Amino acid sequence: MSVDPVALAVEIGHRVKAARTDRGWTLDQLAAAAEVSRRMVVNIEQGATNPSIGTLLRLSESLGVALAELVEPPRTGDVTVTRAGDGTLLWRGEHGGTARLVANTTTPDALELWEWTLEPGDQHESDAHIACTRELLMVLSGELTIVLDEQSTVLHAGDAITFNGDVSHVYANRGTASATFSMTVFDPERANAGRGSVDSSEASLG
């Protein structure tokens, strides 16, 4: 069953606010730690906006929680099955590409499995993740260009790549046909992963 984007935005907002409260942070503190505006944090917590992957990653890393803890439906048992097409849609490209989070584990380390489709001309630019993040990617069809610190690597169906995710990187389809790939992201244990260590006395109450 596909996820209603409005309902997903509301649920993300509740989870961000709960994680912020658990950490004892104000709105200003989270905004500073995640390097986003206070207004953006307010809008997200109110469910008034669908944040980008980049913003969600900044929030999850700052709060010391896995991305999946903010966006995935609650688990109901030890086995979770995601049917084809039912992953959480977290990105849509200008030319019709999509990125879905289809499976994950969250403790003690975060491990995410993604399903991507890039149409010709689509690209996604990703900021550097937290230290020690690793990405493993395999192209299923088409041609995919990976740019790591301005160095490009072209991959075709059956090719795979592993790289450190703590540098800026780009996934791009510069070919003439759709490109599909699966990607696994490993984030190390997040007990001390929050970017910010802002003194609560430095910001106004949220």
Automatic annotation (TrEMBL):
Read off the SMART domains from this record.
Answer: HTH_XRE
Q: Which GO terms describe its molecular function?
A: DNA binding; DNA-binding transcription factor activity
- Ranges for domain HTH cro/C1-type come to 16-70
Q: Name one GO cellular component term.
A: cytosol
Q: Does the keyword DNA-binding apply?
A: yes
Keywords attached to this Swiss-Prot or TrEMBL record, sorted alphabetically, are: DNA-binding
Among its keywords, does the record have Magnesium? no
UniProt cross-references to InterPro entries, sorted A to Z: Cro/C1-type_HTH, Cupin_2, Lambda_DNA-bd_dom_sf, RmlC-like_jellyroll, RmlC_Cupin_sf, TransReg_Diox_bact_type
Q: Spell out the CDD domains in the cross-references.
A: cupin_XRE_C, HTH_XRE
Per the record, the domain of life is Bacteria
Protein's recorded name: Putative transcriptional regulator
Originating organism: Agrococcus casei LMG 22410
The upper taxonomy is: Bacteria, Bacillati, Actinomycetota, Actinomycetes, Micrococcales
